[in-house]
Each structure stands twice: as C-alpha cells, then as structure tokens.
Amino acid sequence: MNTIIYANQKRRSVRDLNKNLPISQDRLEEIVKSVTLQYPSAFDTQSARVVLVVGEKHDLLWDKIIEILRGVVQGDFSATFARLSAFKKGYGTILFFEDFKPLEKSYENFSFLGLETFKNFSEQSSGIIQYALWLALAYEGVGCNLQHYNPLIDEEVKKMFEIPSDWSLKAQLIIGGINKEPEAKNLKNINTLVKIIK
C-alpha cells in the first residue's frame, strides 16, 4: 500500500494518550524539523512557525490553559477540566503559529491579488503543515489530536515561551503514546464526496 495512504488511514484523533512515546525524543525532533523544512507554502514563503513543548513545560502549558478556561467557561467546569486534564497526560504539544511577515514581502509584488488572498494563503499553509506533521507522527505510531484554544490562550502562551508578539497561534497538536485506539471511523459514501469526470 502507498505509505501516504497508509499514514492517512492511521491518522485519527487519539485523545486517550500517555507520556510513553513510541519513538525517541531525537526522532520526534527530526520529524518536526524535517516536515517544517519541506512543507509546501504559497510563493514558498514558509510562514509557519512550530514550537515543540515537552516534559514539565507541556504540563505547565496545560495547567495554564486549564486556568484560562476556568475563568471563561460558565457553569459546571468538570467536563472541560476532564478534557483538558486528558491532554496534559500526553507526552507533549506542538504549537503551530503563522508569521505573516514573509507573506507581506510577496504581497508587495502581487498586491493585485488582494490582502485577503494572502491571509488565506497563510491559513492554507498552516493547515498543510498541521496535516503533514500529524501524518508523519501517525505513521510512526504516535497518537495525536488537534485542538484550537486560540485566541483565548494566545497571549499567555507567548509569555510562557517567549514567542514573538506578531506570531499568530493557529492550533495545538497534542502527542503521546496511545492508551486506547479510537473507534472505527464512520466513513461517508465516497460517491457523494468525489466526482470523476472522464
């Protein structure tokens, strides 16, 4: 089977994670760096910025997110607390940011496309690298789930890890060893999703 297709089939939202990663820290860093260097982006601007947070810093990150959400969520916080605490049990978190400055340089040369188009390019590039890293890690047997607690957590995260103020947080990929595989995916009728024209 094509390895990309195989990885895509393994890529699931795994929320029951532990801190026992099936690969070494060195291998994890190699994957993160390789994908970040090679992912495609509009005008090859490579506007994605990736921060890998592991160990005690990962735990502190989710303690801070719990603190932030506790001040925002109205009513019973128990379900939210359980969900966030489960993410803390993972091995680490990959934070995806976008730095719009590289795109601004391209925009100067292609301003006729419109600023909104370049903002869309940024969002597309971010989605690509998130997906590419998720695929690469799933292929290695690493459990992952993608979350979006931005913009609620943006400023505190930047303070915690000394992130440039003009970087925009897009997503958080929690990674770890897999305690329990997710249930089989309920696939839609492919003929409603794909149209073949010959």
Overview of this protein structure:
With 198 residues, the chain is an alpha+beta fold. It is built from seven helices and five strands, in the order αβαβααβααβαβ. The protein has helices at 3-10, 25-38, 55-70, 78-88, 101-109, 115-139, 154-161, and strands at 17-18, 48-54, 92-99, 143-147, 167-178. Strands 1, 2, 3, 4 and 5 form a five-stranded antiparallel sheet that branches. The longest helix has 25 residues, at 115-139.
Structure, briefly:
This protein is 46% helix and 17% strand. With 198 residues, the protein is an alpha+beta fold.
Which consecutive residue ranges, at least 5 long each, have pLDDT under 50?
A: none
Strand content: 15-25%
Main sheet overview: 5 strands, antiparallel
The general outline is globular
CATH topology: NADH Oxidase
User: For the CA atoms, what is the radius of gyration?
Assistant: 18 Å
What is the helix fraction of residues, given as a range? 40-55%
Domains, number: 1
Distance between the termini: 25 Å
Provide mean pLDDT, rounded: 94
CATH superfamily: NADH Oxidase
CATH architecture: 3-Layer(aba) Sandwich
Q: What is the string of SSEs from the N terminus onward?
A: HEHEHHEHHEHE
Count of DSSP-assigned helices: 7
Number of strands: 5
CATH class categorisation: Alpha Beta
Backbone structural class:
alpha+beta
